[in-house]
């Protein structure tokens, strides 16, 4: 498979993965019981907006990670355009940081800032003249600490304001 085809295939797979991640974050908290009171409705709306902001922030960072991960496999002619695209994503990520900082706990804020710092280093490290090689998967887990912090915060918020138990990972039986 030639490099442009491999890049397009990997980009398509990563885009689908980003969509799945966004859906998972958006649908991560189930509401066990809902009462129709103005206060609860306002908290539901705020909770939904936070989920959407976190999902968008994570998706932008995942797009940067995709470009960086595929960088060695990119044809030299395509690299300047992809570097510019990564820089646009980084600017968008930096703008979204304010939204995430306003709507999250300390762990979410710390993870978001670390994610922006990591993405900044990665984007500034893109070298158009680097030697071609196979695509790297080292950046595929870049957003995981941020998404985990978001999920924990949203679960705690759900338990506190909506009366639902925090969703727990299924445990494997040792029998």
Main attributes of the structure:
disordered C terminus, 175 residues, 68% helix, 5 helices
Describe this structure in words.
- The protein is an all-alpha fold and 175 residues long.
- The chain is 68% helix and 0% strand.
- The C terminus is likely disordered.
Gyration radius (Cα, Å) is: 19 Å
Number of helices: 5
Q: Termini separation (Å)?
A: 46 Å
Mean pLDDT: 77
**H and E order:** HHHHH
* Fraction in beta strands: under 5%
Shape: elongated
Q: Share of helix among residues?
A: 55-70%
Oligomer state of the chains in this structure: single chain
Structural class computed from helices and strand pairing: mainly alpha
Number of strands: 0
What about the largest sheet?
A: none
Low-confidence segments, given as residue ranges, are 29-36, 166-175
Topology:
Elements: H1 3-26, H2 38-70, H3 79-102, H4 106-124, H5 144-162
Helix pairs in contact: 1-2, 2-3, 2-4, 2-5, 3-4, 4-5
Structure in a nutshell:
The chain is mostly helical. The chain is built from 5 helices and no strands.
